[in-house]
Each structure stands twice: as structure tokens, then as C-alpha cells.
Amino acid sequence: MEEHSTRPAKRRFPGLPGQIAYARRFVARHLGDCPDPTTATLLTSELATNAITHSASGRETGKFEVCVHRAPGWARVEVRDLGNLKETPRPQHRDPYDTAEHGRGLDLVEALADKWGSEARQDGMGRQVWFELTWEEPDR
Predict the structure, then answer these.
(1) Beta bridge partners of 11
(2) Is the pLDDT of residue 99 over 80?
């Protein structure tokens, strides 16, 4: 979707594990009327967890930002962190019977999002990882 009719909602969070729940609530508040807000909040949780686990966002003074874009039948959520621009985040494609606790976040994003990706932030201060969800709008 190229055209965005409304301004995105943005919020910055301290890079602490307890803030992930606040990031989920922020997304739920802005996507609460979409058909599947649960998927949006799950994927936000995965990206925010990666931000504080794998980037400088999780350091003592680190932060991450969540940005929600909306249009009819479409949403995009971006998690902007202080990430390494030399490594591109990739799904692990783990065996479903692997019992390791970590390494499945981007697998979930890849499986559940209609589109996803990552790129350098426009301000050059790190990386943003995003996902998009689409749905059919009801006839009115």
C-alpha cells in the first residue's frame, strides 16, 4: 500500500523488558478495530523483544520506538531500534520440535504477516523492522 491517509501514531519506550507489554497495548489501542489485533500485538511483542535483546536499545539508556500506520484494510507496525546495520535480521526456520527458548520471533513474523522487512532508519541511528497486515473491509 503506497498511500497513507492518516499520520502514523508513534511512541518511544525505554529499552526494558517490562516495556514490551506497554508496546503491545499501544499497538492494540491503535489497531483495536482491525479484525485480528491479537496477531498485531504478538508480532509487535516479537519485534520489540528483538530490539532490546539484539541491539543497543536494550542497554541501560537504550530506547525503541513503535510506529503504527493505518489505512482502510491495512496496517503497518514498525519497531525502530538502535540496531546493527551490518547484520540483517533473518528468520531462523527452526525445527518445530526444537525446544530452544529463543530464535522463533522472526519465524512468527514471516508466517503471520502479509509482508515484513527491515532497513536502516532514515535518521541513520539504527534499524527499523516492520510488518504489514491486510484484511477485507466490510461493505457499508
Answers:
(1) 66
(2) no
Of 26, 21, 53, 38, nearest in space to 129 by CA: 53
Q: Is 133 helix (H, G, I), strand (E, B) or coil?
A: strand
The radius of gyration of the chain from alpha carbons, rounded to an integer in Å, stands at 15
Provide φ and ψ at 81, rounded to 5°.
-130, -175
Query: CB within 8 A of 113, min separation 6: which ones?
Result: 39, 43, 131, 132, 133
> What distance in Å separates the CA atoms of residue 137 and residue 101, rounded to the nearest whole number?
37
What's the mean pLDDT in 82-92?
64
Distance CA 118, CA 79 (A): 9
DSSP annotation of 100 reads -
In whole angstroms, what is the distance from residue 62 CA to residue 10 CA? 17
Q: What is the DSSP letter of 18?
A: T
Residues 81 and 12: their CA atoms lie apart, in Å, by 10
Task: Identify any residues that bridge with 77 across adjacent strands, giving them in sequence order.
Answer: 68, 131
pLDDT-based confidence at 106, cuts 50/70/90? Answer: confident
**Contact (CB, 8 A) for 127 and 55:** yes
